Amino acid sequence: MFTLSLSTLRDRKQLFAGALVAIALGVALVQASLLVLMSVSDPVIPSDLPHAERNEMREGFVGAAMLMGLQVPLVVFLAVFVVGSTCAFAVAQRRRDLALLRVLGGGRGQVRRLLAAESLLLGVVGALCGAPLGLVATWVQARLLEHVGFVPAGFRPTYWDWKAVLVAGATGTGIALLGSWNAARRAGRIRPLEAMYDTGAAARVMTPGRWCVGLSCLALSIVLAVGAQAADMIGAVTIAMVLAVVGAVALSALAPLVVPLVARVFGLMLRRGALGALAEANIRDGVRRNAAVAAPLITLVSLVLGLSGALGVLARSIGVEQERLTRGDLVVTSVDGARAARLAGIPGVADVSTRLTVPVPVTAEVRRDGAEAARPHVFDERVIAVDPAAYARARTLAPASGSLADLRGDTVAVGSAVPAEGYRPPRVGDTVSVDVAGHERTLRVVAVLPETLDIGDEFLIPREALPADLVAAAPAESVLMVAPGASVAEVAKRIRAAGLGESTTVARWAQGRADAQQDGNDKIFAVLLGLAGVYALIGVVNALVIATAERRAEFAVLRLGGLERPQVVRMALVEACAVTTIGLLLGGLVAAAGMAGTARSTAAATGTAIVVVPWGMLATIVPAAFAVAAVAAVGTARTATRERPVRLAGART
């Protein structure tokens, strides 16, 4: 059986080349993600660095580990999607060959074993090719993490680990076997003559399994879209992310139904010319190949718009929330507390509330995941020193428990960032320890602030609890209330002239907080979807190459019917661009369902419906998708029409 499989792979190398590339690249991406995850999970941090720099580097590695932990399942999902669909499509394209084998006496079991042997060979060869490619992908992934600031300059990941290589190779081989398994079962059940003439069950693209996956995921997508309308903001954002994945699977599985339906709409424009009408007919008739081309695009656009749009809504909501929670006219950023202390003397300033970021480590005996911590946890290397009364006047957010009026002496208020780290926050009456200039002090918790979208202040302590020299040297951010009748612009000019800091309006300051969060989101997506997006586009190329390689006889008949070779190539180009447009639109439709839920939830929470469309990413993906599809379509069509049509018209391929 392996001898026959090897012969088939040699004879149909054009057909299997796309599947081999998909497996190799999928193995490389999985291997790179695992290696980088291993590297950032157990980093080597130089011991000669200052304590603050070591902590900053450690936090960066923790963020990188969390990010790579998200990327591994995302890459595996894309690998399952691209490799599985490519292998299944390659098997479907050979239904006449398999039917001929059945006519000549081959049994169903033999057909299945043949396809399993071919998939195993493809998987093994793809894994062997993907292992060295994984070295390149690991280097690229590490440089991306370095570029966005998660790891220090010069970071060198582990480039080889047998466990990661074996897991990635087994994943690629397993996906190849699973991808062809269902197609092999179906090929064994179809009657040989039906497959030879593409009638009956052989012509049916929507299999029971595909119906089951498509309809169940579509039903779940509808439930999620409806549920997002009634969820709170965080719930709606989470639902939008899940919907991006589930909706992509639904429309990809139902693509053989959806793509021809959308193609009829495009037909109103394409039918104006002979080539356009022919391309539109091919889109409607070539259901299997066009669904295979559109599916990776549906997935890519759905993930990019859904995930990026949801996080963009969260970032924009942070700005809206901060503006709503802040009472003031100006926000002034000063390099130290000494300058901030002089703001109250500026003419036109009625009230000042200053936050000082002081480098003081905070530890506490807390619980995590229901168990007592093995040792006191160091929550942060800083505290926020405030004047409690002024802080309360500048913020509309009341404590969830306790009172800021009790914040005096050796006391502390716990902010919303503590539970975000996974720990049970200290409660009112508990104690935490701070290390002030080498002397440990115990502070009693007198207030706990409610959670907000912006994970900001962790520990608030009264300013008088810290040495004056630390307060005077700490970076400061002050919220100013301008006196009635005074000009905000004039007050800002006086502050700038006195050299006390940079001032901006509360609205612009809040927008800056949102922009900073969005900048972090963009960096995350550069890492998450950088290589993954390229992989999805390669899936489009594979589908076009496999499909066009099997259309040589079809193109020959068109040329014998009167079309010139350039006209056939242009027809293939129009068809590829139309299918690309359909895939992009369907992916956008999935993302729009999630955006509708986030818009309603943000309107209920903040009074403003917030929808964020990542135009920058779209401006990259859309031209790239059309360019990739166009180049692949033209290149494969020119290759398929190279020989004289008379020789190909009656040929098998």
From TrEMBL:
One of its GO terms (cellular component) is plasma membrane protein complex. It comes from Embleya scabrispora. GO terms for biological process: lipoprotein localization to outer membrane. Residues 74-190, 527-640 form the ABC3 transporter permease C-terminal domain. InterPro entries: ABC3_permease_C, Lipoprotein-release_system. Keywords: Cell membrane, Membrane, Transmembrane, Transmembrane helix. The chain crosses the membrane at residues 15-40, 60-92, 120-142, 162-181, 211-231, 237-270, 291-315, 524-547, 568-595, 615-637. It holds the Pfam family FtsX. This is ABC3 transporter permease C-terminal domain-containing protein. Its main location: membrane. It is found in: Cell membrane. Belongs to the ABC-4 integral membrane protein family. LolC/E subfamily.
